[in-house]
Amino acid sequence: MSKAPELLAPAGDHDCLRAAIANGADAIYFGLETGFNARARATNFTVDDLPAVMQLLHRHGLRGYVTLNTLVFTDELDGFAETVAAVAAAGVDAVLLQDVGAARLVREICPELPLHASTQMTLTSAETIRLAEALGIERVVLARELSLEEIRAIAGATTMPLEVFVHGALCVAYSGQCLTSESLGGRSANRGQCAQACRLPYEVICDGEHIDLGDQKYLLSPQDLAGFDLIPELVAAGVTSLKIEGRLKSPEYVASITRNYRQAIDSAISGQPVVFEPKQIEEMELTFSRGFSPGWLQGCDHKMLVPATSSAKRGVLLGKVCGISKDGIEVELETAVKRGDGVAFTTSADAASQGARVYEVFQNKRSVKEP
């Protein structure tokens, strides 16, 4: 029987923290208001919060990791050192780092504080992991661009504990090393201020001529990673931690994704098949989804990963409109709908969606009563 991997959930605020605890996380990662974390737009936590947060996590048997995973500038080193000292004093179980210099500094300030290499270190092989070991790194978050086959090979060539993203948003740039947001709007992704330029619509101009791509406008916007079908293979590969992205997401997202992946891991460890029912997938999609995909875990498939027809949360597909009258809209449904639901209608990627609220549902001209 394989050893159960850690289920690592995100928390952008206290509500998300409680949601992760209640739904089966083994560990939680979060950022601080002091900066130095790659999700500056999250609510985050204060340094004063740290002792109580860590006491809460440890009381429930969970580990807590603080993200200090931005590039650190020279004039920030004193403030960074103060933050590191406070993190260590609060009993944080590890910090995640991108900046190599910051890793060396943490090792000097707090030699007993465990260091985890952020995915933004872009570690993609056993050879690069050996460099991380020399820095005192004790766990590596692998680059998200690796396939399951490549992850297996790395796991077989190193004793370093490996952490792998299994669900959440993906970057079009290699492991988040993006300069587009900084170049276009002065907000650096490597400083926690990503403006998500990859989610904007773009046109292709070749030799001065516009190329008509039809409804494909979102040319840089990947679908979300959803690796639930591959949990047994990741467990068998010996991955130490399975990570959920989402420090900017809602408590409902954290609760749903954590709960469903908890179930999948437990099934895989017990030798039971990992089966996600359509209702489970629908629930996860409703909390947040740009469309689910295996990311790079099954290899590189650009057309699958970037269908380019949307970049926003879409929820689930309800169906196709097949008739319009003054009394309502007739839809050939693929998913059930009920009174009070919010819906959006769209004709193509370059047409604005029109939103509406469902006030009544009819089937065969009879009102559908909710159970």
Task: List the secondary-structure elements in sequence, H or E.
Answer: EHEHEHEHEHEHEHEEEHEHHEHEEEEEE
Strand order of the largest sheet: 1-2-3-4-5-6-7-11
Which runs of at least 5 residues are low in confidence (pLDDT < 50)? none
Mean pLDDT over the residues: 88
CATH A-level architecture of the largest domain = Alpha-Beta Barrel
Number of strands: 18
Proportion of strand residues: 15-25%
Number of domains: 2
Instruction: Sketch the major β-sheet.
Output: 8 strands, parallel, barrel
CATH class of the largest domain: Alpha Beta
CATH fold descriptor of the largest domain:
TIM Barrel
**What is the structural class?**
alpha/beta
Number of helices: 11
CATH superfamily of the largest domain: Aldolase class I
Shape: globular
Distance between the termini: 43 Å
Question: Helix amount, in percent?
Answer: 25-40%
- Taking all Cα atoms into account, the compactness measure Rg is 22 Å
What oligomeric state do these chains adopt? single chain
Structure notes:
The protein has 371 residues and is α/β, with parallel strands linked by helices. It has 2 domains: 6-305, TIM Barrel; 319-367, no CATH class. The chain has helices at residues 14-22, 50-59, 77-89, 100-109, 126-134, 148-157, 180-185, 231-236, 251-269, 278-287, 302-305, and strands spanning 6-10, 27-30, 63-68, 94-97, 115-117, 137-141, 162-168, 204-206, 209-211, 224-226, 241-244, 292-293, 319-325, 328-333, 342-345, 354-357, 362-363, 366-367. The strands form 5 sheets. An 8-stranded parallel β-barrel has the order 1-2-3-4-5-6-7-11, surrounded by 5 helices. The chain has a two-stranded antiparallel sheet with strand order 8-9. Strands 13-14 form a two-stranded antiparallel ribbon. The radius of gyration is 22 Å and the shape is globular. The chain starts with 5 loop residues before the first strand and ends with a strand. The model has no long low-confidence stretch (mean pLDDT 88).
